Amino acid sequence: MADKTLVAKSDGLLASVCFKVASRALDGIANDSSELPPKYCIKSLRLAADRGHLRAMTQLGTLLLRHGATRTDKRKGIEYLACAAKRDSPDAQYELGRIYELGLELYSKDTRLALHWYALAAEGGCKRAARCLTDAYGKGRLGVMVSGEKAERWRELLEA
Hints:
Number of domains: 2
Strand content: under 5%
Structural class: mainly alpha
Order of helices and strands: HHHHHHHH
Helix content: over 70%
Number of helices: 8
């Protein structure tokens, strides 16, 4: 039993170190770059994500989805985001909401699911998701009826 605990702790430590290495390197790269970061960044993020590091899953998923060169890259990015979203990452939940709003790769456009993921993300503190919901209910976007009450609820979260 002690061996399993030690292995789990060392995996967690390795995941944290890999994430920090990748994050520091990524800090020097512009967000608007249309290319994937250097391979060692991706490898470090993948090592961390595959060991369950939530922020690494979210960051790697977003990078692969937005900048992946192939459909396989983009699909793998969505897989990482879906896994992180199910584990309560607000940023991943927001990205999954966008995926359903737009209908990307294997995911068909589904405004009901987009609203679901946006709501979870906003409740988790994601301002971008709160803004999407404020616009949806305030202006009737995403196929919802205009509702001043619901728009105000999400606006309050946005301003909190």
